[in-house]
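User: My collaborator sent over this chain with a note saying "see what the structure looks like." That's all I know about it. Can you take a look?
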Amino acid sequence: MAGPANALDELVQDGLQDGFLFTLPAAAAERLLREGIRISVPPGSIVYRDDERPRVIVVVSGVLRVFVSSVDGRQVTIRYVRSGGVAGLALVIGGPAPMSIQTLTGASVVALPVDTLRALVAREPGVARACAEELTRELYRAVADVSEQAFLPVRERLIRNLLDLAAPRGDRSLVARVSQQELADAVGSVREVVTRTLHQLREEGSIATSRDEVTVLDPAGLAEELTALGLPWAIEEGVAARRPSAEPTDRQSSEPAEAATPPSSSQARRGASRQRRSRS
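Assistant: Without extra context I'll predict from the sequence alone. Here is the result:
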């Protein structure tokens, strides 16, 4: 069997399917990969601190989080980066910023050469356009995340993050490998509130919890709860995913509403739980 023809083909064989590198002109992507460094990083590792020289990292496998810290040590997660995604691109283009990057799971990443990428951006329109498009996607996602953090209750913020992190396991279940403290950092709350909310979801049969991971038992029901608030979530091939913001949700549809259907048992449990909370 023939081996990979180039560096990008090698990453494809390792499971990389799409993402930032595939939007670059082929010659530019190959040069960046030849000069880059492939690294395997254990979970919980800080791969960039906000006081270091800028670094741009492409994720081959695993999940990274980009976060900011307050002076008293509290953290807020800005975004997650998965296979194909890039972290630190804004640092290369705009210079240092007060944010850090950490692995949530064991990860395989490529650290791209910053000086080479800057030179390619200055010289090659195709590279500059790809970087501009990637940064625009990150900006739009950040705007959506900020609005959700500002307007959603903790419960829905927590559900959104669990669906965002959940990935299929060998037994086809969806598992978010994340600690309660990491979830608190992600939703901008405290651990006690997150623990209480997870307990409610567990009572409703929507999730199961164990040490540093949450199994999503009812992803469709949780996605429906977000969709009812106008958030574009759907279940695609068993995995929760955001729908493009331009795609209308049920709430935005101009079609006549269909006749109501009886709620599922999990929906009924969630409704009863919300009624109990509203009376308390």
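A starting point for your reply to your collaborator: Residues 152-246 form a domain with the Arc Repressor Mutant, subunit A fold (CATH 1.10.10.10).
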